[in-house]
């Protein structure tokens, strides 16, 4: 049985990331007075957190109508410049997949049902026409999909920093205390100007996605896959644990050689010109995944004083403005019954299409990570 919680209850939140900060914000907006957030990092936002990144995709293109609807709500919130400044950039999201692929088809159906501004991309010519003049693209042979113009990307670190300041201004106290591979390319000013107005490109076949350049002229790309796990041999603990720049210095930024090559191969298919430029850096983003990509939000089955809000599964950041509302509802026992079941820790794995590609998560082989020469084309 969950404990009775009031606005005077003392609430301790572990982790000043997407879930933690958004939860604190929504509780404080509801009148809670005693909110404290603890974070393992000596500085916050934590420099090695997945949410402390240059950008994250903001899309409503989900095969599950619940997430599609929640994402539409989040996008409307992101557009409020008084709240989020210029964190959100609406450049559109190109969604491609194999013909009759369930995830892509269901995503399109949901976007249409929710009123998104979409256009079908039925052939390579319609895809190429989306990119600015002067941008050399791949052939896109055998690829189809659609563009959702109600989407784009968010400057991730800025969003976290802004929300942190909101939490502090409302009286919240912040106390400092699986891997996805990402690569970056540094563009010249002339190159960046050509690519600046490109849409986000998201391929549900390969999992590859790429952003337009940010204000520092950096292009980020990654593979949305089941990624890698890392079990620290020094501890003997059989639980995947973070391996980041804080725990392993620059060595914690290196990605597997095979993944780096896969990213480059996909880059060449979208932007052949950029595929011949060296990577300026790489990063391993630490995610907490669930088998069905649904989050874990709710009271622990055997501890009435503990609420879990985790399992972001690589798709939580876009919901930074509103995911905390779900957690606050769970704390106050106001979460809708179907969501209580969806997000339960001890649930049966929900049966719906997930967006991750490739095999199950692989164990990270630290002897096969990239070296400086692997950054070259």
From TrEMBL:
SUPFAM superfamilies reported for this sequence: FAD/NAD(P)-binding domain
Obligatory cofactor(s): FAD
Signal peptide, first to last residue: none
Pfam families: DAO (PF01266)
MF (Gene Ontology): flavin adenine dinucleotide binding; L-pipecolate oxidase activity; proline dehydrogenase activity; sarcosine oxidase activity
InterPro entries in the cross-refs: FAD-dep_OxRdtase (IPR006076), FAD/NAD-bd_sf (IPR036188), MTOX (IPR045170)
Domain annotation FAD dependent oxidoreductase: ranges: 10-329
Sorted UniProt keywords: FAD, Flavoprotein, Oxidoreductase
Family: Belongs to the MSOX/MTOX family.
Protein's name in the database: FAD dependent oxidoreductase domain-containing protein
């Amino acid at each position: 049985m969950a404990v009775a919680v009031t606005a005077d209850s003392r609430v301790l939140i572990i982790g000043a990331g997407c879930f933690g900060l958004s939860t604190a914000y929504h509780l404080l907006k509801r009148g809670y007075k005693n909110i404290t957030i603890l974070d393992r990092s000596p500085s916050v936002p934590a420099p090695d957190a997945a949410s402390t990144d240059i950008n994250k995709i903001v899309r409503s293109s989900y095969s599950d109508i619940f997430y599609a609807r929640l994402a539409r709500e989040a996008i409307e919130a992101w557009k409020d410049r008084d709240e989020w400044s210029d964190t959100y950039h609406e450049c559109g999201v190109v969604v491609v997949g194999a013909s009759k692929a369930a995830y892509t088809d269901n995503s399109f159906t949901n976007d249409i049902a929710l009123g998104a501004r979409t256009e079908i991309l039925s052939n390579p010519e319609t895809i190429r026409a989306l990119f600015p003049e002067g941008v050399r693209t791949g052939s896109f042979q055998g690829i189809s999909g659609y563009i959702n113009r109600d989407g784009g990307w968010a400057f991730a670190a800025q969003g976290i920093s802004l929300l942190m300041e909101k939490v502090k201004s409302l009286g919240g106290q912040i106390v400092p205390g699986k891997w996805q591979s990402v690569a970056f390319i540094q563009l010249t000013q002339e190159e960046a100007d050509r690519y600046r107005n490109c849409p986000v490109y998201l391929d549900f076949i390969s999992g590859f996605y790429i952003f337009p350049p940010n204000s520092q002229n950096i292009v980020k790309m990654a593979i949305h896959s089941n990624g890698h796990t890392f079990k620290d041999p020094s501890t003997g603990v059989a639980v995947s644990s973070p391996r980041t720049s804080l725990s392993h210095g620059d060595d914690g930024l290196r990605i597997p050689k095979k993944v780096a090559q896969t990213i480059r191969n996909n880059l060449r298919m979208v932007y052949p010109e950029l595929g011949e430029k060296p990577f300026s850096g790489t990063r391993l983003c630490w995610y907490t995944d669930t088998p069905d990509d649904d989050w874990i939000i709710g009271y622990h089955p055997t501890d009435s004083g503990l609420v879990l809000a985790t399992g972001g599964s690589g798709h939580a950041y876009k919901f930074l403005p509103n995911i905390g509302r779900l957690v606050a509802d769970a704390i106050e026992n106001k979460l809708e019954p179907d969501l209580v079941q969806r997000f339960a820790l001890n649930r049966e794995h929900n049966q719906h299409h997930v967006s991750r590609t490739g095999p199950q998560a692989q164990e990270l082989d630290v002897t096969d990570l990239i070296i400086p020469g692997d950054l070259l084309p």
